[in-house]
Amino acid sequence: MRFSASLKQSHLFRRLYRRGRSAANGLLVLYCRKNGTGQNRIGLTVSSKLGCAVVRNRLRRRLREIYRLHEEAFRPGYDIVVVARSRAVAAPYRKLEQAYLTLAGRLGLLQEQDHESDPS
Known about the structure:
By secondary structure, this protein is of the alpha/beta class. The protein has 3 helices and 5 strands, in the order E-H-E-E-E-H-E-H. The protein has a 5-stranded mixed sheet, sandwiched between helices.
């Protein structure tokens, strides 16, 4: 993650849950809040109810990879927490990716894409 850092402190997670904006679908819940810095901080929450450590870590890796691949599309300066729901464990990667980006777009975290063609 070039432009981002990890969010690890519990008081930051709690502040996001209380004061941040959220969007949800069947697979994920996304919380966001401006952080006043020039970079994003990303936190992941995968409950132990979702499975053993192998399953939870696989889901975390998939969520981290989705963000990494689309990092340039995210607006800078936000704290973002992604909470995985139980259906996310069995979801295919593409469906998880689509759910993640849909929620980010709903919260206004994605930058506007230029739809003009390149002049060269």
